[in-house]
Amino acid sequence: MIRRQREREVSHTKAPSVGELNEIVANIKLSKGSMLNATNFGSTESIPPGDIFFSVDQTALAMQKNAIVKDNNVTNLYPRPTMFPHMDSALLQRNKANANINHNSRRTSTTTSGSRMTMTSASSASRRSSSKLTSDDSKMSDARGRTSGSLKKFTANRKKKQSEAWFSCVRKGPCKTSKSPEKKRFDETSFIEKAFVVESLRQFWADKHQPDSFNGFTCHKHEAQILSQLVSHDSIPHILLKGPPGSGKKALALALIGEIFGDACWNKTHDLRYFQVQEQRAAAQVAISIASSAHHVEINVNSEPNAKYALMGLVKEISNTYAINPEVSEANFKPDYKVLILYEVDKAPENIQHLIKWIMDCYTDSCKLILCCEDDSDILETVKNSCKVLKVDAPVTHEIMEVLIQIARKEEFDLPMNFASKIAAKSKQNLRKAIMALEACKAHNYPFSDDQPIPFGWEEVLVELATEILNDPSPNKLFSVRGKFQKLLVDFVHPKLILLKLVELFLKGVEANSKRELYYWHAYYDKRLPTGTTALLKLEEFVAKFISTYRKSSGNSQYVQ
């Protein structure tokens, strides 16, 4: 009897459907994992399309039953319905049909006592579940009633959250939980406009400690006395100062206008001014860098290729401002005038010298000229005959030493006599080079040592470099910049002195509306410059930044990238 009963229980049935297999696999996954304890599913990215889609409702997940695996046979019942409604209904109908077939059919085949009956875990689970669902049909109806609230809640939640990440993952694959906010683009120009910028630079010692009167000269006391007598007699002629570079010609010229006009002439500005080109019919202008005060103008007629347009424009402007009316001249009033200081006249082209002679002849009452040159042999005789020629000899070694010691005393540091003598001897009687070398040595190493290297001529290297960049601000200049920076750093020139001199030279060649930005970047890189040769990259970065802003402000789009 027991054997027949076991034979009736173990019989061959139809293979389970795809939905039934999915249900069984889902229950096994739920029993092995910890998904029942989770509040929700963050993502369904690991579930391939076509698999079972579980509800994110926590109450529905809490109603699941764990699968119990014993003797390689699945003995659990189906879990309570937690699928989508159409899947629950179809699955229930299939289970009822399978239960009726299994209950009414008779098994005709038997097995021998030595043979073992085998069946798949899926078939056993399907048959047992069908029998249980048929006998407890009323219990399933109650379960559906208890679950209906959860399904309605899930349906409403599904419609509400279709745009959320877990649903988009099911439809389109990888999900994005949230859309990252777009970063606001940093507006560098507006930031610099709102920043606090100190629009001034400290002076180099060679400019800071220039004598502001004839009494302050250590060198050239005789020449200073001659110029002082011209001022006292109220008869200032045109003056020609000749002498080697660095001898002090510029210092004498500035001291002269300081004696004439007072402290107002020391309020000097460097501007980029535009002058009309008169040879062309169409309106055209050229930009020329000039230094000026209320009473004088300084121009380098050699380095400025369009200096003649500046001279013609300035003379016209001066003549209109300082013109003398006839009735005023009859009253014996002394006319006012403005001084033009012209540098490197001997190296200027011949047409510039003819223009200088024309200014002397036509505007001598309203415009006085102070010409500076290295050698007057290349200057027209007519120009020299119209000027008071004054020779400025190069200072001797002990005079340079005295000037260096005075500067050290004003800057409050100790300068040994042997080190000052060493600088003066190697300066080749160039006073400005000696002062600039002293400042570079102080910045590099202090207190001084006897074997300390003394860099000479580093200012001229930077002047040449700045001129090249201003004339051709193309990115290709960065290749030549690196070599010159490397040489200066190897010669122990402090990076902050290099940066300061470059900014000083760049300020003379940019528009007025770009100066504030240049002051800002000087302060920015001055605080970030390392010492020694490691500053090379930062100096290159500053030059690249200047080239970019200079091209943008001046509209130099013709240069090749």
Task: Reconstruct the topology from this structure.
Elements: H1 2-9, H2 18-32, H3 58-62, E1 69-70, E2 73-74, H4 85-104, H5 121-135, H6 137-160, H7 165-172, H8 188-194, H9 205-208, H10 221-232, E3 238-242, H11 249-261, E4 269-276, E5 285-292, E6 296-300, H12 307-321, H13 326-330, E7 338-343, H14 350-362, E8 367-373, H15 381-385, E9 387-391, H16 397-411, H17 417-426, H18 431-444, H19 458-471, H20 477-490, H21 495-507, H22 515-526, H23 536-554
Parallel strand pairs: 3-8, 3-9, 6-7, 7-8
Antiparallel strand pairs: 1-2, 4-5, 5-6
Biased composition (Basic and acidic residues): 134-145
Organism: Populus trichocarpa
Region (Disordered): 97-157
Description of the molecule:
There is one protein chain. The chain is of the alpha/beta class. The chain has 23 helices and nine strands. The strands form two sheets. The chain has a seven-stranded mixed sheet with strand order 4-5-6-7-8-3-9, sandwiched between helices. Strands 1-2 form a two-stranded antiparallel sheet. Helix 14 links the parallel strand 7 and strand 8. Helix 16 crosses helix 18, helix 17 crosses helix 18 and helix 22 packs antiparallel against helix 23. The longest helix has 24 residues. One of its GO terms (molecular function) is DNA binding. This is Replication factor C C-terminal domain-containing protein. It holds the Pfam family RCF1-5-like_lid. InterPro entries: DNA_pol3_clamp-load_cplx_C, DNA_Rep/Repair_Clamp_Loader, P-loop_NTPase.
